[in-house]
Design brief:
Blueprint (H helix, E strand, L loop, with lengths): L4 E8 L2 E10 L3 H10 L8 E12 L1 H16 L3 E5 L5 H8 L7 E3 L2 H11 L2
Helix pairs in contact: 1-2
């Protein structure tokens, strides 16, 4: 069975921007996400998750994002979300109250700029 999550990691002014495409769901997709993204910490504690290409997320995917946030904060950084579509992923994040936990921006440029303004 093929992996249904693609991650592209780019550097933008010292912030790692992770473009997520596909599904962040229980199983190998969540494990792949954890191994790739958590490996950036503590060297790069400021991370933007760009979610425009994410079609599906489940409770395990939400949990992986929250775990990443906690680890980033332990390393002196933060995680910001960008380009959350108005579809399924947006609904799941709303139902799980993620907008009260994360700063969410219209695009990755705004999220990266927010790090410069806050110092984290």
């Amino acid at each position: 069975m093929e992996l249904e999550l693609e991650l592209e990691i780019v550097d933008s002014r010292g912030v790692k921007v992770v473009f997520c495409r596909g599904k962040l769901v229980i199983g190998k997709e969540v494990e792949y996400f954890k191994s790739k993204i958590e490996g950036l910490l503590p060297e790069f504690p400021n991370i933007v998750l760009e979610l425009k290409g994410l079609r599906r997320i489940d409770s395990q995917g939400v949990g992986a994002i929250v775990t990443l946030l906690n680890k980033a904060r332990e390393s002196g950084g933060d995680v910001k979300l960008a380009s959350v579509s108005q579809g399924y992923v947006h609904k799941v994040l709303e139902v799980t109250k993620m907008p009260t936990v994360f700063q969410i921006f219209d695009d990755e440029r705004q999220a990266v700029s927010a790090f410069a303004k806050t110092g984290t």
